[in-house]
Specification:
By secondary structure, the protein is an alpha/beta fold. It has four domains: about 5-55 and about 155-320, Rossmann fold, CATH 3.40.50.1100; about 55-145, Rossmann fold (3-Layer(aba) Sandwich), CATH 3.40.50.1100; about 325-400, Alpha-Beta Plaits; about 410-500, ACT domain (Alpha-Beta Plaits, 2-Layer Sandwich). Helices cover about 40% and strands about 20% of the residues. It has helices at about 5-15, 30-35, 55-65, 70-75, 80-95, 110-115, 130-140, 155-170, 185-195, 210-220, 245-250, 260-275, 285-290, 315-325, 340-350, 380-390, 405, 435-445, 475-485, 495-500, and strands at about 25-30, 40-45, 75-80, 100, 120-125, 145, 175-180, 200-205, 255-260, 300-305, 330-335, 355-365, 365-375, 395-400, 425-430, 450-455, 460-470, 485-490. The strands form four sheets. The protein has a six-stranded mixed beta sheet with strand order 1-2-10-7-8-9, with helices on both faces. The model has no long low-confidence stretch (mean pLDDT about 85).
Length: about 500
């Protein structure tokens, strides 16, 4: 991107009209997080905006500067949540008609929120990408102005007002941690901060399974991810913006990734400091601070970017919190199948530690498998526990970082397939809508016996299913899976799956 456009964005930030509808969000010291990290940590509370997300800033800044004829034709946007709410409220404030195209998998609470701000909603596709493609068609048909969620200079400038506020609110700031989806937020913040305070380091944070910006920066070109993670749906973007990428390349100091467990731990940390619950994307920046090597005198700021999370997701977050903080370990342990072995294991290994879960799976006549979760103090303490199991000759596997085990196996009671039949296991991502399972089964066909099926709602727009097929024609099966147009991975070679199923 040319320096002129950077200057234009900074100028647009200084003249932005976002405060017609958005608030100057508080910058609060996080007392507990500061104590835990040993740094003076501050939270930029964008979760307190009228739509509980920073997206309102960019949407309003863009819509407020439309021409009279553009306003008369109305606006249109594609969104799975936060951007749509921002567009709807901005349009309502300005007396403009707004149409928001949302995936059919969008939770009702988000659809209702857009409608409550006066927006018209059309549902199309099973993902944001499919909804966005349909939105382009509708934009041409309706002559409405398309409001991009991140890749527009005026949208970028609107988000950049957050950087201006931080510089004014906390001159002592040394680092700003920013969540990244398409890059609009970090492009706006970095443009302003680096123009006025180049000494402040801007750090981008992405989920491990949705790090399109980090990979693009490393390759020095915009790449397209084949798959994106579904947990932090607010930043699940396969390709960053044409406008946002060069700004990030030239203005952002570092890029890091965090795990799902670390985001869950950050959600808990923010709640304990503020008594507010942010969405997974809203906790990315705090997770980044917790897992970044900051100097002792650092004064980091985390952007709490949003709080639009369905209530039902809280159970999933709570289950993963201890893993993210390094305070829980999950093991598969082999015990002799005879009276007293479980008692002996608890006496010799667990002792006074808290057991977070324990599942039993009979393996062979002479052995049994248990899946046991145990609280630990830290990584060193977990290693001490593993050494003790080795010394007492308990065969074990550390599954603390195994996603399939935590997503499926810990909630299942296993069963062995027929010994003469080959079984293959796959994890398939389904859109959360009625009829998705029937569509999948229709596409795969009835040539194979389904030997296992596990689904657990994540209260998101997508869910994961662990499914087993008995067949001697694996290549034919996988050809059917590929043609079914559902994302899938083979799972029967996964350590946690192999141990119990």
């Amino acid at each position: 991107m040319s320096p002129l456009l950077i200057d234009d964005i900074v100028r647009a930030i200084l003249t932005s009209r976002v405060y017609d509808v958005a608030i100057e969000s508080p910058l609060e010291r996080a007392q507990k997080i500061s104590f835990q990290t040993g740094r003076d940590v501050y939270l930029k509370r964008e979760d307190l905006q009228p739509v509980h997300s920073f997206k309102l800033r960019g949407a309003y800044n863009k819509i407020a500067q439309l021409t009279a004829s553009e306003r008369a034709s109305g606006v249109i946007a594609a969104s799975a949540g936060n951007h749509g709410q921002g567009v709807a409220l901005a349009a309502q404030k300005l007396g403009i008609s707004a149409l928001v195209v949302m995936p059919r998998t969008t939770p009702a609470i988000k659809i209702d929120a857009v409608r409550s701000y006066g927006g018209e909603v059309e549902l199309a596709g099973d993902s944001y990408s499919e909804a966005a493609d349909y939105c382009k068609v509708r934009a041409k048909e309706t002559k409405r102005t398309f409001i991009h969620p991140f890749d527009d200079p005026l949208v970028i400038a609107g988000q950049g007002t957050i950087g201006r506020e931080i510089v004014e609110q906390l001159p002592a700031a040394t680092h700003i941690f920013v969540p990244i989806g398409g890059g609009g937020l970090i492009a706006g913040i970095a443009s302003y901060v680096k123009a006025l305070r180049p000494d402040i380091l801007v750090i981008g944070v992405e989920p491990e399974d949705s790090n399109s910006m980090q990979i693009s920066i490393a390759k020095e070109e915009r790449i397209v991810l084949k798959h994106v993670g579904i947990f932090a749906d607010g930043v699940a973007v396969k390709q960053v913006g044409v406008n946002t990428f060069p700004i990030a390349m030239n203005k952002v100091d570092d890029f890091i990734t965090v795990s799902t467990d670390q985001m869950c731990s950050a959600i808990k940390s923010i709640f304990e400091d503020t008594r507010s619950i942010v969405e997974p994307a809203g906790a990315l920046a705090v997770a980044g601070i917790a897992n970044y090597n900051l100097p002792k005198n650092a004064v980091p700021v985390a952007i709490c970017s949003g709080a639009n999370m369905t209530f039902e997701r809280l159970q999933q977050v709570a289950e993963r919190t201890l893993f993210g903080s390094g305070r829980e370990a999950l093991f598969a342990v082999t015990l002799g199948e005879k009276p007293g072995t479980l008692h002996g294991f608890c006496s010799e290994i667990v002792r006074t530690r808290n057991i977070t879960e324990l599942s039993y799976r009979k393996d062979q006549r002479a052995n049994a498998r248990i899946l046991v979760g145990v609280t630990v103090e830290n990584t060193a303490d977990k290693q001490t526990l593993m050494n003790k199991m080795t010394n007492h000759e308990y065969a074990h596997m550390d599954l603390s970082g195994d996603e399939t085990t935590k997503e499926h196996v810990r909630h299942m009671i296993g069963g062995q397939p027929h010994e003469k039949v080959k079984e293959y296991l796959y994890e398939v991502t389904f859109p959360e809508r009625p009829g998705a399972l029937i569509d999948f089964l229709d596409a795969v066909g009835d040539l194979w016996n389904i030997s296992l099926f596990h689904y657990r709602s994540a209260a998101s727009d997508s869910g994961r299913v662990l499914i087993g097929f008995e067949t001697d024609a694996r290549k034919n099966l996988e050809a059917k899976l590929e043609n079914a147009n559902f994302e899938w991975t083979r799972s029967d070679k996964n350590a946690g799956v192999a141990a119990f199923l």
